[in-house]
Amino acid sequence: VQLQASGGGLVQPGGSLRLSCAASGKIFSIRHMNWYRQAPGKQQRDLVASITSGGSTNYADSVKGRFTISRDNAENTVYLQMNSLKPEDTAVYYCYAWPPASWGQGTQVTVSS
User: Fold this and answer.
1) Is 4 helix (H, G, I), strand (E, B) or coil?
2) What is the mean pLDDT of each run of 10 residues along the chain (113 residues)?
């Protein structure tokens, strides 16, 4: 499975961005697609949101009510709609699919005035 992430950028606090992650390859095997982020200076990637093939979603407490994950099965794409962005949302965002375990390249999100 190959994943192509896009949609990052610079936005002011309170603004919105939508990230996209397009999957190709053995996409019929994918059951979960997640978004992770790695904040500046941190080694680990934190789970932001996840969605199953059945549409069940899960969110980190820090983004609940502000972020929405969705998937378009026809386009083999997962989206992360991010609203009311805060400076602490600044990070490199990565999409992830399983199985098989596959990472996309990161896309930078910077929230700053």
Assistant:
1) strand
2) 94 98 82 94 96 94 97 89 98 94 95 96
